[in-house]
Amino acid sequence: MGVVLALASAACYGLVDFAGGLLSRRVHFAVVTLLGQLGGLFCAVAVALLVPAQSVRAADLLWGALSGAGSAVAMHFLNRGLSRGAMSVVVPVSAVTGVALSVVCGVLFLGDRPTLLAWFGICVTVPALWMVAGGGGTAPTGRLPADGLTASVGVAVQYLGLAQAGPASGLWPVVAGRVAAVLLLLPSARRYRADLRQPAGRLALAALTGAGAALGLILYLWATRRQLLAVAVVLASLYPAVPTVLGLVALREKVTRTQAAGLAGAAVAVVLLSLG
After folding, report:
1. Is 187 helix (H, G, I), strand (E, B) or coil?
2. Cα dist from 49 to 32, 54, 118, 172, 243, whole Å
3. What burial letters (b/e) apply to 23-39, b meaning 16+ CB within 10 Å?
4. CB 269 within 8 A of CB 118
5. pLDDT tens digits for the chain (276 residues)?
6. Contacts for 162 with CB less than 8 Å, ≥ 6 apart
7. Residue 161 and residue 101: Cα distance in Å, rounded?
8. How far lies 83's CA from each of 29, 185, 208, 232, in Å?
9. d(CA 218, CA 20)
10. Distance CA 221, CA 227 (A)
11. Which of 4, 31, 100, 228 is the most buried (most CB within 10 A)?
């Protein structure tokens, strides 16, 4: 069940990246990110009220808030990179480095002990993610993948922090995380409040992407309670495959041989991690 939940989380994040990447080229990325976190807060509160929590400790909320700070950093810099048109650099760097940091921390500090098959799956996932996202194609002249590297740190903090919240706390750590993210993002978004004068549909889409991201986090949290953190993180981080497939199906884009090999590698990784 943990494998299914983690893959469902990846699907949510992939859809969010696909929509958010397109939207960030029409509305300022800081506004898109803030509206997304507000939408995520609404979604998280609604679901948390439906899921009983036995005992919500202050420590659980603090871990959730730390995770939310990571989410704010990850989405801010990811959307900034996407708004610059550097998807082929930002997405693979953030995904691959985020996976590596999370797995290393899980093994060294949290006592994760993946099986041999799971380790093979993790090793296959890293190059597969890179190839799926285009192999880190040529970035705009003079552009370094700094946005992707910064986003990857946020991704790792988001995943590691949320996994520390106790199961008895229900989904309230996710809510605490959305509150922390909104508070952190509000100052930068206020400078671009003129971008709020957009068609209502665009603003609603920004909020909807945030709700999708919150749902992805909820699914990931449930996965960590049924699966090793290292395995759940790797499976949830397969989200770059979703925009690639959507581009092929919905936008009639051509998939390169590198991307096709990456998708095949991702499928192999899912099988190995499931068996492990």
Report:
1. helix
2. 26, 12, 35, 9, 31
3. bbeebbbbbbbbbbbbb
4. no
5. 888 999 999 899 888 877 877 787 788 888 888 999 999 999 999 999 999 899 999 999 999 999 999 999 988 888 887 777 655 566 666 777 777 788 888 887 777 888 888 888 888 887 887 777 665 554 444 444 677 788 888 988 998 999 899 999 999 999 999 999 999 999 888 887 777 778 888 889 989 999 999 999 999 999 988 888 888 888 888 877 777 677 667 666 676 788 778 778 878 887 787 776
6. 63, 64, 67, 173, 174, 177, 217, 220, 221, 224
7. 13
8. 7, 17, 18, 29
9. 19
10. 10
11. 31
Which residues make Cβ contacts (< 8 Å) with residue 15, sequence separation at least 6? 212, 242, 246
28, 192 Cβ separation under 8 angstroms: yes
Where along the chain do its domains lie?
2-275
What is the per-residue DSSP string for 210-264?
HHHHHHHHHHHHHHHTTS-HHHHHHHHTTTTHHHHHHHHHTS-PPPPHHHHHHHH
Report field, pTM of the whole predicted structure over 0.90: no
CA–CA dist 205, 185 (Å, integer): 18
- Residue 44 has which token pair? 């998280």
Which residue's structure tokens are 């799956």? 121
2 Rama class: left (phi>0) / alpha (psi -120 to 50) / beta: alpha
Reference 230, options 105, 43, 126; nearest CA is 105
Alpha helices, H only, the chain: 2-23, 29-50, 58-83, 87-109, 116-132, 146-163, 172-190, 200-224, 229-236, 241-249, 257-275
